[in-house]
Amino acid sequence: MSDGASVTVFDVHTHVFPVIGRDEGRILADEGQPWLRVDGGGAGMMMCGDAEYRPVGEALWDAARRVADMDAAGVDRQAVSSTPLMFGYAAEPSRAADWCDFVNDRILAFCSDAPDRLLPLCQVPLQDPQLACEVAKRAAAAGHRGVHIGNHVGDRNLDDEGITAFLAHCAELGLPVLAHPWDMLGADRMRGHMLPWLAGMPAETQLSILGLMLSGAFERLPESLRLCFCHGGGSFAFLLGRADNAWHRRDIVRADSPRPPSEYVGRFHVDSAVFDPRALRLLVDVMGPERVMLGTDYPFPLGEKDPGATIRACPGLDDAERALLLGGNAEAFFAPALDLVTTEGMTQ
């Protein structure tokens, strides 16, 4: 099932869209969105009211198909998070909280088909950090093992005071946080060719990481916070030298940050979804081999089709480092959650 008896393959970046009908979508919005139209033959469509959003396959909502795919690909475990279309950040907060509770219950049900293989991550109404804390606490008590958030809420980045308070609350609960880019900036200039995904996602993630660094937010956040950025941290690794240079040369860059950006790379993780062994080599050099975890963006078409292929092809990694990237780092990142899964399994 894995690369070998001693190597676990753990994919931290996978998505689910449980079967949610249009009437159920009205929990969030009167027009009934988002919802999933299942068309038969393993095909479906993510819907926004009457509008078709994106065609999808059954692995997005069928746990048995997912586990079969994992077996075929040699993946031992996945962290399962909602599709960003489901976040609901534009809704009235109390309504969004009800929606998140509903979605979180569906994610738990999905993962219950293979509890030793599928690790559920909850979503929260991040537009109201206090409510988000309450939803996260309920979700953790119900069995969720981490939190999946978007990288911003409107014009509020992750260094927003309320959002950092939520992140600190996650640290207190022992919940790892997976931050995913969404609602990409500059959308009016990125028409066609999936440019929001190709250019917008890396920019969004770079913005989030630098925002936490240069605002001084990492100085305020507890070091116990386990935070991972999807898509390899976006353009962050390639542009870190530019950010460090600016911090050293301009007081307006370092006004709120006592240390240069490169001194904060030990405060977060990234996934490996960069799709090029040369890019992954740079990412490992910047982050260190203990801060990069396998992430594929399964089951979407732009994800890594052969999970771990980029890691296996990455030059200069020894066997121990490759094992860390394929699964060892993820096991450590989710360690308290995995311990709880094991304990529950022994008592059931």
UniProtKB/TrEMBL annotation:
Its EC number is 4.1.1.45. GO terms for biological process: secondary metabolic process. It is an enzyme of class 4 (lyase). GO terms for cellular component: cytosol. GO terms for molecular function: aminocarboxymuconate-semialdehyde decarboxylase activity; hydrolase activity; metal ion binding. The keyword Lyase applies. Residues 11-334 form the Amidohydrolase-related domain. Pfam families: Amidohydro_2. Pathway: Secondary metabolite metabolism; quinolate metabolism. InterPro entries: ACMSD, Amidohydro-rel, Metal_Hydrolase. Keywords: Decarboxylase, Lyase, Metal-binding, Zinc. Monomer. Belongs to the metallo-dependent hydrolases superfamily. ACMSD family. This is 2-amino-3-carboxymuconate-6-semialdehyde decarboxylase. It comes from Actinomadura coerulea.
